[in-house]
Predict the structure.
Amino acid sequence: MKYISTRGYEQKFTAQEAIIRGIAPDGGLFVPEMVPHLDDEEIERMKNMQFYEISAHVLAKFLDDFTESELLDYTRQAYSEEKWGENPVPLVQLNQYNDREYILELWHGPTCAFKDVALQLLPHLMTASIRKTGESKKICILTATSGDTGKAALEGFKDLPGTEIIVFYPTGGVSEAQKLQMVTTTGDNTHVIAVNGCFDDAQTGVKKIFADKAFNEEVSNGGVKLSSANSINWGRLAPQIAYYVYSYIELLRTEKIEKGEPINIVVPTGNFGNILAAWYAKQMGIPVRKLICASNKNKVLCDFFSSGKYDRNREFYKTSSPSMDILISSNLERLLFEITDKDAAQVTEWMKSLNVEGSYKVDPQTLKKMQMLFVGGFADETGVTKTIQEVYDRTDHVIDTHTAVGFNIYNRYHQRSSDETKTVFASTASPFKFSPAVMDALRGENFSEGKSIEEVISELSDESGLPVPEAIKDLSSKPVLHKDVIEKEDMEQKVRSILLG
């Protein structure tokens, strides 16, 4: 399996090279030349597999530089019971009297966010790729985060020999728990820097660094190679495909659906990577009726699926679901490349227009292809609050603000469509990571005002009956080890000073 750039770079790359590089030399994103397929016999066999085995089997289809035995070793370590509990990604029926709704809990890992699924595995894939390709340079993982990727990447790569990891996050653009998780991170190779601006500023700055050939040559001469832990890295995205395959297998195994019966998948998303993974699962043969793309008040994706115009020239909102506070959805480039039959010239033109003018508009045929599968919608802050309360009252499940966005959009879709298809909700974070917003929804506006984060977390535990995750406990008492705050224009110089002195 070779990997190609969405912008038409003539060279093809192995999976190992794509993982190490993170982004293609022309600024495009790596995609597989073809999407592998799961046949009926494989699907039947997977009914007897645990999640780590399903993950290895799916990854082996894409990453044929690795044997399935190697991948099994990596997934067994990445999803160990010590880190995740007995079931890493439980699929839970929300209400015993409703066999239509199932929640896929993706937040049982070390940092309580869905990013752990990929970022506990990526270091294994990265180090193996380095070894297999004979790469001798130190690998610097350069990442922008809207809250969850940062800590998950730090946890995966801290103290990993031969690597440095630099995480940029927006000031005021993450929850207090997310910030504390990052700035208290230990590890001799970890660097966490706040950027004055929003996530898009940090993400754009990282992309510019990757695209700066002179700078990359400079750090290369200094013995360092840049890579990424964002979902622009195929090694980050591919493991996410596996949990959507697992969801379908689990519904088959528990006889909630019949073989071949389609499902809906609801994904709250900002950067489009998590829902793109569900799209790839469909292309592999998992029967999906609708992919429901749920946006918060920053509804650039919702508007795009409605009109075909992607326009980031709009007001930016800081919301209670900060991991989705994004106006530039990087992974959308991959989808556009795939559904235009790999028209790299057209994709390059759209991305250039986005970079220069802040917008682009797809042709009617492309829009129709997307609308046949994707349903877009958005929830404002009032809607998120009401949905947290409604889901709790109806099912006794406490959900975080991002997952609530998904439920909000789905509920409105279901009302207008009367679609009774079995539906999987991707639950992307533990409610404890956003405990003030969750408790305000459950107990009333401003309930958490004036209280410490630990006090609110304790109250959420009492209310929900859920234990406080180890990753969330005593955050305020941990020493702050990362205090740098910079302007977005200074990101490249900051990376230079860290890597080259």
